[in-house]
Every structure is written in structure tokens, then in C-alpha cells.
Amino acid sequence: MPDSNMPDLSRLKFGVGQAVPRQEDPILLQGRGRYTDDISLPGELYAVMVRSPYAHGVIKGIETAAAKETPGVLGVFTGADLEGHGYGAMRCVLPLKNADGSPLKNIERPSLAMDKVRFVGDPVAFVVAETKQAARDGAEAVFVDIDVLPAVTEASAAAAADAPQLYDHLPGNLCLDFHHGDTEKVAAAFAAAAHVTKLSIRNNRVVVCAMEPRSAIGEFDAETGRYILHVGSQGVFGLKGQMANDVLKVPPEKVRILTGNVGGSFGMKASAYPEYLCLLHAAKVLGKPVKWTDERTGSFLSDSHGRDHEVDAELALDANGRALAVRLTAYANMGGYLATVAPLMGTGNFVKNVQSNYATPLIEVNTKCLVTNTTPVSAYRGAGRPEGNYFFERLLEQAAKETGRSAIELRRINHIRPDAFPFKASTGSVYDSGDFSAVLDQALKAADWDGFAARKAESKARGKLRGRGIGNFLECTAPPMKEQGEIRFEEDGTVTIITGTLDYGQGHWSPFAQVLHTHLGVPFESIRLVQGDSDLLIAGGGTGGSKSLMASGAAIVEAAQLVIEKGRTAAAHMLEAAVADIEFDRDGKGLGRFTIAGTDRSIGIMELAQRIRTANNPPPDLPTSLDVRHVFGEAPQAYPNGCHVCEVEVEPETGHTEVVRYMSVNDFGVIVNPLMVAGQAHGGIVQGIGQALMERVAYSEEGQLLSGSYQDYCLPRAGDLPDFGFVSHPSPCTTNPLGAKGCGEAGCAGSLPAVMNALVDALSEFGINHIDMPATPEIVWRAISEAKAA
């Protein structure tokens, strides 16, 4: 439940609800950020990876003699060199089951391929040298003899009887045949439906395109036997566990993960990659730190990609327009290996998020997860959440056209009503709060829905087609895992928060400090944040799934209460009073004070922390500090939701589509920092627009990546975007202390359907009812041309 002991926020300049600028920004804007590539260790060496130029083939041999003779080269390593050291492999960690109850068929991925290569970019060797150029020269001298095999790049094609087989233990390339739902009940609902809508929808593959390419430095301490990895990540505690338990096969205390600033991740940097073991092994063998920083081409090839699903979506409606059932039948592309959470997006997250904010009683999802000769796929902003919402919104829009109904009224008819909370969805989720129709109505008003006709006429006068689209959404956040909330009062008068989540661009420092300032009354400007050293953590779920504030925020709130209890004991001693007589409150400046009830005798929390630290001959029961190390237990998922309204203009002669108006109304529960939440929404919207209109990973039949640089892969730029309207319509979450719902991925969840519904609306005068992402100018032009010719 949200904390009922919140102070009067009007007294707090930097409290919860205030638009406080990001504390990190002055550091980053002045070039004082410390990313992995900024780190230089004494005596460090440089590594360059050798990658397969073929998508599929048998490794016949690897010639390294010439590379070893290259000036400056100190080591050339292949998979055979890693064997015999007791190392493990990377694998999927999800306990998913097939439709028949059998477990998913996992893949043990070694850090260097030894038998076969399975995608262009698959690492087969690496070279370590005194300089980066020498390592690059050495890598170019490595010759890999590969007997090339036929390749397959599409999941549906991989399921064909005559498709190339990637693994002997995966007949038909199938690693998971997932099923959710009551097939008989769903079939009966469709049979009894007054109307059934069907759409084949492509959820296009995207490159993550983080600002900072992956980079890492491996160290080995021979005296202690400890491995140290400097690396961009989404959480050092989880990565430490994976590297220790799965990859290095050593006790966790033998591994330390250090993460500084991170230039974006969106899910891609969450897990271990082959390069990390390679660096640590080389550091151990050569006795020096080994550094590697990827180049952008390598990022396109080796960073996990996002999305890539082929879906047949169906919606059954009764005579009144109420949804009886929704059914998804999908192929999910896993790429050449099975990443840590790869099957989640097209399975469990489809299930939970296709429900959206509608009271659909029956949901069935059938997904075949298949390996292909492409870069492995993993989580990307939303990780199945935007997709689930996109599928339902496109179905609903199409159903409205087919039945002659208003799409707005069809949404209202199917919305979960406010008096239905707590609402147990057919997926097992329990929604605690929301007012979905009110959010829709507010979005229509804020977007000037009624003024669209005039804008459409004005566009037509300029030879443009104008369309508008709605993106209703509700996403199920990741459940908060156990999270550390440590508070430390330092000798220099600062207060340190230590947490297991990790800021990889979001900006955690300010909102976490606002929570602590609000609940403990320590000066905002004195609060520091430590989050990237696994040696300081005893728990940590990392950042992902829009759960950070719910997890770390709750941990901070609970830790603050423990500090107050310790403080009451300490203040009672200092003020010579009984503990029961000590009250805690905030003064006129919002700073915490301990006061003897009914008197004016008090002591501030910062003074108290300093005095008990320096107290002479304290009694045994007096705390020696106000420091607290606390672990917050798990809390239920939250359900951020909202409604986006988009307007686009299309130039029919070229197919160019431009987003010209955009409004979003969002229910993120209690908002700690409105400025930063709006920024998160903007970022998600832009990524959604990019996927909808521009971004496309393309492979040749041989599995060669055709969109391997920014000359071939288009990203949205500032000039492609309008101003974004942002309105908050909060219904506080009742299942976590802050009342927050998460916001990091919601922009994608609303923008995918809003943009594509607007585009289809613009093209509807040609009889076009559906178009797949990415709707590039060529695709839109071709659709218009074919419609005209029909």
C-alpha cells in the first residue's frame, strides 16, 4: 500500500512529486562521465574478436600462426584454448515448458564457437595485443576454414520440413512449443462469436542502437583468485551471479562486477556475452588487464537484436461488440543461440500484455520459438509488452471497421470498469487500480480529436493524406525482485544510497534522492548514489521491466523507517529521554528532527548521525551509527497504462510518412519526478516511431546482414518528430509503498499502435486496412500503388 506517513510535500523543495533536474546531467555534460572505454588500467592490453563471415557452416580449422607472428600480438585464443579450464556456457534461464509439459530445449552457448558457426558475427577466436591496432592486425591474420551450409533467417521458414537444421538436438529448429489458454473454451467462443477479425501482423526485428557500444575490461588477481570485470550492465549483482555460476564456474565471491556510466541498453546489456569470458581468461593467462571496445559494425552483428515475431491474431466479438476471446498464433525468432530471456517476449509477455486494459475473458497464445541463422534476439524496450498491446489495438481498429462501429466506443465497451478493481485478468494478473475510459476521454480532448476534420482538409489542400490513430495500452511490469536499500551516513556529511538497480541512462540519482529526502528528511544536496559495485551488494534485481522505482524506491522507504527507529534510540540517549517519548518529524525546511514529545528539545538527523559516530564511551545499547543495510522483499507487478493519440501525414507520390501531432495521457501512479517521467515517455515514443516507420533488420538468403550500418539502417532524428504532449492521469498503485507504477517502457507500448493506426487511417481511402512495420516510404508507396492498380 502507498505510504500513509508522507510529510506535507509543500514543505519539500526536492520531495516526491517535484520536477527536479537530473543530478547526473552536469557531470555528463561536462564530459566527466566514466564509461567503460574511458577506463585505462596500468599495463592493459587490447583484444579484438574474430567473427564468422558466414551465417551457417562447419568449422574445419582455424589458422592462427600468422596472427601470432604479428608484431605486438601477445596471444591468439580459440575455443580449444578455453577448453579444459572448467568454464561453463551461457544459456536461457527461464523455466518455460512446452505445450506437452516437457521443459524447453536449451542451448549451451560457448564463448567461442568450435563445431559450427550459426550467424554472421558468431565469435570464433580473439587476439590480444599491446595496442588496439596490433590486435586488429592480428585478428585480420586469423584464417577460419568454414564449410558453408545453407542458412535460414525467418522463424516460419525455420519450421519448414526442408529447412537447414542448426542443432542436432532441436528437430525442426524448435526449442519451445509454448501454449497458454483453454483451447476448447477459446474455440467455442470463436464459434459462438457474432464477428471474428483476423490479422497477420509482423513485429519487425530491430537493432538496439545504444549510444555506447559494448565495452569491457577483464582483470584477474592471482593472489586472491578473483576475476574483476568492468562492463556496462543493467545490474551488477545479477551479472555477477551469471558470470560466477554459469560461465566461470567459481564461487560468487571470486567475481566482482564494476559498472560506471552506461550509454543506453534497453535490455541488450543485461546479460553475459561471449567477450566477457574471453577477456577474463586472457587476463588470467597473460597476467595483465585486457580491454575490448566494440565498433559499431560489431554492435550491429553481435549485440542481441529485438522483436522479430510473425503473428496471426484473432479477435472474437459478441453481438454487442464485447470481446469474447483473443487468440495469437506466432513464430518467434530466437536467432542462432538462445539468449538468457529470449523466449519470454513471445510467450509469457504476449500472454500478460495482450489483455491490455480490456475485460477479455479468454486468451490463448500459441508460440513456436525457433532458432535461425541470425543474431540472437533478447529483450528490447518493453520485451513483449508493446507487442501485446499493438496486436490487440490493431485487431480492435480492424474489428470496428468490419462491424461499422466506432473504434472509440468499442474501446469503452470493453474497458475494465473502475468498480471492478481488484480485477483478476484471465492471464492471472490482478489489476489493482485504473480508470481506463477516463484516460481515453482525456486523451481525445487533449489531442483535439474533434478538430481533426479541419486539419485533414488543410493537409489535403497541400496534397497530403492525413490520418489519426489511438494507442490504448496497459503493460504488466516485471515483478520487483529482492532489492537492496542501504543508507550510509558518511563522515564528510553526505548520505549514500546503495542499491542493486542500475541507471543505464534513466537517471536514478534524483528520484531516489527525492524519495529519501521525503521519507527521512536528510538534505537532498547531500545524498549520493552508489549502484555499480557488486562487492557492496547482498541483493539486487537490476534495472529492467519498468520496476526500478518500485523496487529500489520501496527498499529506500523501508530502510528509512529502520533509520528512524535507530535514530529514536540514539536521540533518546543524547536528549536524556525515554525512547517512547522521542518523535520524528521534519522542520520547516523539510529536514528530519528527533524531538522529545511536548517540548522544544530536539536534534537534527544529520547532527545526530555525527554525534553518535564520535561519541565517547557510549553505552552498549547505543547504535554506533544510523547506517542501515536492508533488503526489500518482492512486491506484485504494477500496471502502468494510458492512451496515445497520433496524427500522421503521408505524401502519396513518395510514400513518406511524417508524425505531425502527438499526445499522450498516462497513468503511472504516483510520479516521483514529473520532468524525468516525461523524458522517459518521450524516449519510448521515439523508439516506437522508429520501429513503426523506419527501422528494419534485413538479411540476405545466405544470412548476410544487409542493414549493418547507419547507411542502411534508419533511426528517427529530432527533425522527424513533433512536440510530444504529456498529461498525467494518476491512479496510485496500491501494492507498493510509493504508489508508483513504472514508466520506462510505456512510451513504446502506446506509440506502436498509435502510429500504425494513424497510418492505416490515412491510407484507408485506398481501401488499405493493414500495413506492417516498418512502414518505410517504399513500402507505403508500393501499398498505395498496388491499391490503385487493383
From TrEMBL:
Residues 30-150 form the Aldehyde oxidase/xanthine dehydrogenase a/b hammerhead domain. This is Xanthine dehydrogenase family protein molybdopterin-binding subunit. PANTHER family: ALDEHYDE OXIDASE 1-RELATED (PTHR11908:SF132), XANTHINE DEHYDROGENASE (PTHR11908). Keywords: Molybdenum, Oxidoreductase. GO terms for molecular function: iron ion binding; oxidoreductase activity. Pfam families: Ald_Xan_dh_C, MoCoBD_1, MoCoBD_2. SUPFAM superfamilies: CO dehydrogenase molybdoprotein N-domain-like, Molybdenum cofactor-binding domain. InterPro entries: Ald_Oxase/Xan_DH_a/b (IPR000674), Ald_Oxase/Xan_DH_a/b_sf (IPR036856), Ald_Oxase/xanthine_DH-like (IPR016208), AldOxase/xan_DH_MoCoBD1 (IPR008274), AldOxase/xan_DH_MoCoBD2 (IPR046867), AldOxase/xan_DH_Mopterin-bd_sf (IPR037165). Gene3D superfamilies: Aldehyde oxidase/xanthine dehydrogenase, a/b hammerhead, Aldehyde oxidase/xanthine dehydrogenase, molybdopterin binding domain. It comes from Dankookia rubra.
